[in-house]
């Protein structure tokens, strides 16, 4: 085959040398616009897994690269006058120029034709090539020649950064955070050879402009950074190798995702690699890793399918299918880390104490979890757990400290024994809104199972406020009596507290039980529906009537009566349901609120009626007990509410006296397109807690203790609501404690023999030899 690699970065060079090594008969050229052995940039970071692959595919270049590596285990953070360090993180770095020079020499030794100082405008410049590799970087001319084919999605991120170096050598991956009069700056620092360290300075656009950095040349920017980071630099200078850039050298990161990676131009097959196909933010240092892994996978597929020209389409199809998975995983982690640094000032640096700030930074990508930190640096993590436990009010001794999810939490005069909440989940098993033995056993068993707060399903304020005929209600004394029965059982037999979530289904009411057809309208026995506007939930749903003032007054009175009845039950906690497209949510979302009166339009108008309801409830509910708000923090639909809107509403409820925001999302529109994944809704809780300054509950895809401990320890939420895992395991909290080796958590005395057996079985399983 005739192969041309456009762009002499890591992807193009490494693919070229692998192909020439495996099939010397191929004609392979690498065309690079820079001069021989002349490249820009400072250090790059590799993963151990990538080095394992490189040793497998080309031991010669891998050995030379490893000889040039600088390895370090520690991360050090300078923040608010503190210097914190943790170990066990295992990074390797190499100068970008050194890496490319090694790959260039290896290509030359194998017979790859290297062509320098040549600009390539298009893949069509090489009509005789069987395969053209577009490895020409972020601004790829190859990709840009076919925008309708490759479908590039390029987003310019808001932060500014400048990529510098210094001759001071650092023995840890160092992060230095500095507050100025106009905002925070952070430096990402790591050594990559025996003389030089990379020194990236990053800040927000607002701080960049306020300091006049946009008007400075490179020397001015360097002087500014040297002064700001003088403590960590200790008299050494910052240097640049980007003199070819005119004016300011401050850049914005561009996040790139392509819809397709390959194309046949009529003569040649064209495929993208490295930054031409995808980018990953420097916050996790994976751009070079992705490029090398691209080259290895394309080579692997050619080895599997064959090197004949007619096999190229199948090769490229499989290559893209496989690489998309790993690239998406890395890009997701890089996005999390990137977004953390973009908001670090107002969300974390201004609000968190240094130990929690350090923990938050270490887990910013969500690839490193609580127990993973224990494996990396047990001493540091146990020290952090002691700090967190003391901050939670516990006396800390020499025994193993309680991890964050099992520390107590106090709101008003209600103290929870731990941070785990059984999330409200509809059971569709009530008759006329009355709780029965099923609910007592269902909810009581979860209280015995160790959760700190037990919520029943959304409890409706009138018969016509129900989602289905099987939903719980709280509008009469018979219902109160059964609620008292539950509350008395939980308080007598466990340390758990009981919460009642009051709501009104609105346009999503009068539907079948879930197992008979979720969200489907009742075929008979339906009741009239009301909503903020006459917008049905489904095409075949009943069309709700737009509420007038008389409807609002009636529903408000219903919530007041139900709150009064909730007081009678002796419950510890009240929540107002303003999420998931139900009545009060329909006022908040512009997708469902089309009103042109005082209750539609602006955020203030859309929140007016839900706030009326809340204030009336707060006036009745005991002052020593909390009220939380369940909020849909993202509609996941164009034109709907976003996390920014949710933060505005959260501030309004906070100012009205709400104690906590229960941060969920979605279920407002059937056109929604949620981005699911582990802990996918936790960022909403993180944003509201740390920007608005109100406690939060995180919900959604939290399924193990490691998740909950990571969320709570990082300050992303104060409580974690566990839904489906509680349906599968009533004793979820007790079992998760045992799984992480925490034997001090008490079980009900009736179950103590089961506790011993469960913990013994876990210990046996952990020490059992793996099956052969």
TrEMBL record:
Organism: Rhizobium tropici
Broad EC category: oxidoreductase
Gene Ontology MF terms: anthraniloyl-CoA monooxygenase activity
Gene3D superfamilies on file: 3.30.9.20, Aldolase class I, FAD/NAD(P)-binding domain
Claim: Oxidoreductase is one of the keywords in the record: yes
Name of the molecule in the record: Anthraniloyl-CoA monooxygenase
Pfam family, any one: Oxidored_FMN
Presence of the UniProt keyword Signal in the record: no
Domain FAD-binding as annotated: residue spans: 3-328
